[in-house]
Amino acid sequence: MGKEQSSVKGGVIKRLKIACDGDSFQLTADQSQQSMSAVFRTYDPNKDKGFPKPQTIVYGISPVVSLAKPGGTLEIRRIDRVEQPVSVTMDHAVIDLAALGIALTPDGLYQAKAAGHGITFKIDASAGSGGPILSRLLRF
């Protein structure tokens, strides 16, 4: 409760993120007596749509995929929207999708499967090309 979690009695919590320039709003004295405040914390817009929660967030549009051992095919498909799936032969245990010219979409929710294992991940909304390998690492 408090700083970490909210509780409501006789109401409903709805979590949304919106762009807002709050500094431009000025209330009159009467308006300020009738106003309310709200606390906003993290919000998962995919939760209400029945999508799984991502197990990790990748901070680059071209992940570096690391498997326990090479072999087989890596399949990546977007699950929150329709997008062409990605298929890559895993000749090595670690493959940088940037080196293959493969880029995913920022803010996309994906599932990757290879060698009998899988992971659900999200590309950060502000992700760009390049960046440190650790911020783009997808291990499973």
At CATH level 2, the architecture of the domain at 49-139 is Sandwich
Radius of gyration: 20 Å
Overall structural class, as computed from helix and strand content, comes to mainly beta
The number of strands is 8
Any idea of the CATH class of the domain at 49-139? Answer: Mainly Beta
Uncertain spans, ≥5 residues at pLDDT below 50?
none
The third-level CATH topology of the domain at 49-139 is Immunoglobulin-like
The total count of helices amounts to 2
Widest sheet, order of strands: 1-7-6-3-4
Shape: elongated
Order of helices and strands: HEEEEEEEHE
Helix content: under 10%
What fraction of residues sit in β-strands?
25-35%
Describe the structure.
The structure is a single chain. The protein is mainly beta and 140 residues long. It has a domain at 49-139: Immunoglobulin-like. 7% of the residues lie in helices and 30% in strands. It contains two helices and eight strands; from the N terminus they run αβββββββαβ. Strands 1-7-6-3-4 form a five-stranded mixed beta sheet, with no helix packed on it. A three-stranded mixed beta sheet has the order 5-2-8. The longest helix is centred in the first third of the chain and has 6 residues, at 29-34. The chain starts with 28 loop residues before the first helix and ends with a strand.
Quick summary:
It contains 2 helices and 8 strands.
List the main descriptive attributes of the protein structure presented here.
140 residues; mainly beta; Immunoglobulin-like; five-stranded mixed beta sheet; three-stranded mixed beta sheet; 2 helices; 30% strand; elongated
